[in-house]
Structure formats: C-alpha cells, structure tokens
Amino acid sequence: MKLPATTICVLACFAADFRPSTATQQKRLANELKPASAGAVSVQIKNVNLLLTPKIVLGIGALRGQLHRTRSDIPVTFDDSASFSVQVDSAEIRMTSSSLSALMNEYVFDYKGAPVRNVAVKFQSGHLIQTGIIHKGIDLPFQVDASLAVTRDGKIRVHTEKIKAGRLPVRGLLHFLGEDLQKLISENPGRGVQADGDDLILAPSSLTPPPHIHGNVVRVSVTDAALVLFFDSGRHPAALTPPLRSPAYIYHRGGILRFGKLTMNDADLEIVGDRPGVFDFFQREYKKQLIAGYSKNTAAGGLIAHMADYSHFEILTDARNSATR
Hints:
The protein is of the alpha+beta class. It has 2 domains: 5-94 and 232-312, no CATH class; 97-209 and 217-224, no CATH class. The chain is built from 7 helices and 21 strands. The protein has helices spanning 5-13, 22-32, 97-108, 173-177, 179-187, 204-207, 286-291, and strands at 41-51, 57-69, 76-77, 84-95, 116-124, 127-136, 138-150, 156-165, 168-169, 193-196, 199-202, 213-214, 217-222, 227-232, 249-253, 256-259, 262-265, 268-272, 279-282, 294-297, 303-306. The strands form 3 sheets. Strands 1, 2, 4, 12, 13, 14, 15, 18, 19, 20 and 21 form an 11-stranded mixed β-sheet that branches. Strands 5, 6, 7, 8, 9, 10 and 11 form a 7-stranded antiparallel β-sheet that branches. It is elongated, with a radius of gyration of 22 Å. The N and C termini lie far apart (48 Å).
C-alpha cells in the first residue's frame, strides 16, 4: 500500500522518536521526569481566537511566552489542557461581551447554590454593565455598572459604581451580595475572584478554564466591542521566527511537546489555519482540525500543521473575537 505524501512527511519528522533504541527511550524518560519548570515550550501567537469552550473565546492579537508543564511526569500535552499553563511575557488579549457572559455563566458562577444566574454583559462608555438574576429569597433582576482598573500586583479591579436590584438602588456590592459573596469566594477559590470592600479583584491565572494564563496585567481597556487586557511581565525575550510567514499562527519552539501519540523533543511546531487574517483554534478538539488539514515538515526538522479553521465545524456566536481589531 502506498502511503500518502503527507503521512510520509509526518512519519519522517518524528522517525527519531520511534527507533527501537534503549538509549533513546532512557533519554526521553529522563527528559519527561525533569521538574515542572523544565522542558518549557516557548510560544508565540498572533491573531488567534483561542476557544476554551465553544462560547468562551480569547481573542489573542499577540502573545509571547512559555508553556510550562503542571506535572513533573507529563510534558506539555495538547490532549490535556490541564497539563500545562501559559506563562505570559507580553500579550494583548480581547474578550467580547458574549464571551465574558459565557465565562460568568459557565465557569465563575457555575456551582451548586450559586446566587446569580443568567448573567449578560455589555460594554458602554468605558464601563462594564452586568445584568442577571439574583436569588434573595425570591428571584430579583439586577444591574451592576462597574469600572475596571489594574492593581499593583497585576490583577483586575472591578469597582462597582451603581447597583440596582429590581427597581431599587443598592448601596454597595457587600450589601447587595452579603453572605453570597463570601460563599462565592470560599467555595470556589479556583475561580479567580477575591473581594476588597465593595470591589472584586480578578486574577487572570485562575479566572478561565485551563490552560490557565499566568501574567501581569498592566493595562485594561473597555471599548464598545471588547474588553482588552495588556500583559507585560518585564521579560522581553527575542521574537521567535516561525518557518512559515502567516498573519495568524501559533508557533512552539524548544522543550517537549506531545500531541496524540507523537512527542516532539526540542519542539519546532507551527500551526496555521486556512482562513485569511485570523485563526479559530479549539485545543480541546484540535484533532478534528488537524485531520481536516495537512502537515509539512521543514528543512530544519520541524513541522508546519495546516489546520482547518474551527469555524468550518461549528457556527459560532459573536463570542468569537476579532483578534485583529
């Protein structure tokens, strides 16, 4: 049986990993058992809509950083979003109102007994407007008008300007939520929410589903179209040079990277889409995108994966960000 050319390319790229050499196997095992900080994969992203769920989308205009394994015995693995975290050097990340609404409903307030539901977010005049239903003995509609700022330690401060429950104004967030606020924080410590008086402090490192994003937020901007977060750790490594010039890509370099049954040592993997300008990538379903595309190996022994854009598989709502805007 004659193998397709694309299959030959992939097999050639990873042939070194499948030679029945005991020395090679021992070396690989030693690499994978290094501490969690070892084997970090440098990453550079441009103009990518990163889907954490079908409705929670991060519009990444640009990002430079590293992927760090979260367990010492498992390398960065595409098939397990919890196997790594993203350590951001610098980035510009956007969320639309629909995506932020989904984040509130599907993640932040997604727990048994949550007092708040049906949250809808919109942006207006530089403010964040949230509406929804709160249960205080009876169900009451509410509206919160808040401004956003950055804390000294790189988190996001949500300062409540006005609150209405039903048709009545409420004095502050503590008065509005009361014990429910402490319940949100104490029962869901991994949801990235803390209280500071009548303000909420949001930690990007645990605010979204995995892979968690660790970084220092230095500026936040609210437009009528999106919430924009600017990250800067103070580290400014040199820009990576992907093998293929593309306006939208994810490029991985160095460290150990695993996807499916394949493992790349000294990773050199670029992922691009088939839609001009921006690339919709859903890591949880990357295999679907990979199978519908094709791969090419490079002269340097790397791999370029031309994936089908995820928009071909799902009709996305406007939670999908325009990462280039």
